[in-house]
Design goal:
75 residues; alpha+beta; two-stranded antiparallel ribbon; two-stranded antiparallel sheet; 3 helices; 4 strands
Length: 75
């Protein structure tokens, strides 16, 4: 999907208006937070916090490695 976005004045700020279709693909709506991540290809907009994603990845690794100990603690 390629969309041409125009930079505009919004109150005393500057911003862009995202088309309805783009908001639906991102699964976000008014009031939600987007994260702008700089990548080698440019800027990526995502509703997912990359720091939380990394923390979840580490937590899953610990759970896999210590599965037996965690199971005993849960009893």
């Amino acid at each position: 999907m390629t969309s041409k976005l125009k930079i505009t004045t919004i109150g005393n700020s500057t911003g862009i208006i995202l088309p309805k279709e783009m908001l639906e693909k991102l699964r976000v709506s008014k009031g939600d937070t987007l994260f702008a991540i700089e990548t080698s290809k440019g800027i990526e907009l995502t509703p997912f916090n990359p720091e939380v994603a990394e923390q979840m990845k580490l937590a899953e690794q610990v759970m896999r490695e210590d599965r037996d100990a965690l199971r005993k603690l849960a009893e």
